[in-house]
Structure formats: structure tokens, C-alpha cells
Amino acid sequence: MSVEHDSDDPKTPLLPVNDPIEPLPSTPFSLKFLITLKNFYVLSGPLLCAIIFLFVRFDGPVTSRNMLAVLAWVFAWWLTEAVPMPITSIAPLFLFPLFGIASADSVAHSYMDDVITLVLGSFILVLAVERYNIHRRLALNITLRFCGDPINPPLLLLGICATTFFVSMWMHNVACAVMMMPVATGILQRLPIGPNQSKDVGNFCRAVILGVTYAAPIGGMSTLTGTGVNLILVAMWKSSFRDAKPIGFNTWFFFGFPLALLIFFALWAILCLLYLSRGSSQALSAYLDKTHLKRELDMLGPMAFAEKMVLAVFAMLIALWMTRSITEDIPGWGALFHGLVGDGTVSVMAATLLFIIPNKKQKGEKLMDWNECKKLPWNIILLLGAGFAIADGVQSSGLADVLSKTLDFLEQAPYLAIAPAICLVSAIITEFITSNDATATLLLPLLIQMAKTMHVHPLLLMIPGAVGSQFAFMLPTGTPSNIVGFTTGHIDIPDMIKTGLPLKIAGTAILSFLMPTLGTFVFGTNEGV
What we know:
This protein is mainly alpha-helical. 64% of the residues lie in helices and 0% in strands.
């Protein structure tokens, strides 16, 4: 008789003690099980690595060739997803020591630094927001205020999209899209479907779903915690230029928020032009009103103590992030600790408070418990660690100098032509080949060398490359947020292309304008590194 084991009990052994061992069914061996496309992808990494290791020669140190071979292995697995991306992300832990690039200890340090602790603490707070349904209350409150009486479709669309934008600023954009899409579809459930649906109603449904789908990644551009790409950028900047001023939470916000806001209004204008006609208000007024939204909000009941405390901790965290380091003249509270604290310090401290403060629901129960943290996105955390390890390896192995020499032809290229091209190439790679996090990890080390060759500040190329990887608006497979919207059934690929293409062009134009203007002021790109 088997014994049931509760996997949530921390005392439960990893392996069952008393369960009987049942033999697994066996199948006869056959070569056709080995000759598969997946296995070819698995072999492609080691094969590319071996070819470079045996036949490529550089003027620089041997470790530069070894690093290129390791990059070929890792990138081949990332692009083909031959093995799960988190497993590929930990491959540097054994490849770097084996190829003489770095010691086991030094490469392991790349997988846990202040940026990664920032991610860990932030995601724990996001899980607390999900646990108490705070995001739904926030969405309904804001949408209720934007609804209008009589209903104003462009204003209602703005309210739904702006809520998604705001929520995505403080949590990962994929988590935001997953949480906000049910809120959006809940509003649309009041509308008729099928043959009874008018063209105006159908277009409004498309506009709402596309708005939430795209507002999530756009809002995530505003802050470091909104998307993994921003964190990869900041970490690679820190590891590649250790003597340069690091990019803190508030530094990025002063650039990222205006950028995201302009792209957001471009999104809203595109959706209004493409999907909302003058007859939309009359078509929707029979189905949508403030009474429905108010009823949904009343069903949540009054805000509980636990919700208030989670919001208080979140507000405290944002305030501490924004005031840790303000300007050179106004150093912020971080100066009290002689620069030893970072954004990750604050993030983990706030997350710790969630395990101390009671939720007043049951005796002894806190705002968070460890079982909730099993949902932490370790795939993103490991990918960040791999990005930091690769950035360190490219520098320490000498590969950075070799790459710089091969890019001499770019020295005379004008920046205003290169930056938009980088942005578009980065977006296309994300759209058709791999994720935006992987795209940033692949491109940023190369862009650093391009900047050195062109004699421009590295951030002038790194930021267009990183932000551009988030402009994957045209296909469902571009980002997980796109998939979330596409699976609702309200939109199809032509809708995404019709909206995503002008949005991609608008985003590239806005970024190309802001980088040499606002970016120069915020990041000091007119100064040396």
C-alpha cells in the first residue's frame, strides 16, 4: 500500500521511503530514436564548439578562441532550444572552467550579485500582489474612473491600457500580461459574440486585447524590474565597465519612463485610428456601463489588512529605490551606508518583511509563506546569471579585443544610421528567432565592441539593442505577452501585424530621438567611460 506524500511539507523527503518500486516499461533500442531533429540540435552546440576550437586561430590569447567556442555552443542551444533554456543558462558553470576561461568560483559569482537579488526580492513581492488579488482591485478601480458616462470608448481603452502599463512598471511584464488579461476579457464578456457581434464591438474587443498585450512590455521598459532585458543591460554595463557609474533604479527610470510613455501614447493613437470609429460609443453603450464595473469591484469586498500591508511594503520599496541615490549634489540615503547598499539590498529587505508581518487572517500566518515562492521564475534568474558570466568571460578571455579589431570598418559609420539599424535588427531577432532576454544576452557584448570601434559611448548602442529587443509586436511567438493575448481568440496574426508594424516603427523612431538627447543628460553619454 503506497503512502501519500505532501510535497508542500518541508519535512517530506525528496525521495519516497515506503513506496514500492515498479519497473518501468522498456522498448527495444532503435537508431530512429537517436536520429531526430532535436538530437541534431543538441549535437550542434558541441560540434560548433569543436570546429572553432580546432580550426580557428586568433592573434590574441588562446582563451579568446576558447571563449568564442563556448559562445557558439551556448548560443546554438539557446537559439534552437535543444535543451531547456535554464539548463543552457547554467552551462557556463562547467564550460568556463573546462576551457580555461575562468575558475569555478569566479563564474559562480556571476550567478548571484546585487542585480539578481533585486530580481528575487521583486518577484516575491509580485507573488504577494497575486496572492491577495490586489492587481484586480487596482484594475477595476482605474477602469471605473476612465469608463465615462455615457461610455467613451477611447477613454475606456486608455484606462485599461494605462492600468496594464502602470502594473507592468512594478512587476515582470509577462506576469502583468497574465494577470491583466482576465481583467480585460472579464470586461469584454458583457459584449455579444458570434454572428450577433457588430463590427464596432468586434473592433473594440481587438483594440482592448491588443492594448493589454502591448502595454505590458511597454510599461516594463519604464523600470529595471519591469523586464529581464533591462536587468541584463544594467548587469552587463556593470560587469564590463566596473569603474563607470552604475545604472541605478532611479537613473533608468528618468530615461525609461519618458521613453515608455511616448511609445504608450503612440500605441493608444494607433489603436484608436485602426479600431475605434465614431459609432463605437453607441454600439457599446448597451452592454458596458459603470454599474457592471462597480458590481465587479463590490464583489471583492473592502480592502483587507493584508492587502493594505502589501501595498505599504511595495510603496516603501519604490520610495527607497527612488531615493537611494538621487544626484551628485543630493546623494540620497545610500550615502549613510557609504555606498555599500544597492537596489537588491532594499528589494530583499522588503521581501523579508512579508514573511514577518502577520496577515491577520489566521493566527500565526504571515503575508507570505515559502510555498508561494515555489512559483519564482528561476529560468529568468539563471538567464541573467548566464548573461553576466558571458560578459565577464568576453572581457577576461581577450575576446573583446579580438572583436574590436574586426569591427574597424564601423569607425566612420554615422551614429544616427547605426542606432535605428541596431534597434530593428534586435527586434527582428526577437520576433523570429529567440526571446528578448536571449537576444539581449547575445547582442550586448558585440555592441560594446562596436561602440569602442566607433569611438562612441557604449550605452548609445547598448540601450537601442536592449530596448529594441522588446519591440517584438508582430507575431504571437515574439514574446510570451503576445501569446497571452493571441490565445484569447479575440485577435489573429493580421491584427498583430497591422498594429505591431507601425508600433515597431514608432518605437524605433522615439528611441532613436531620445537616446542622443535625453540619454545624454541622464547617462552622461557625452563623457568618457
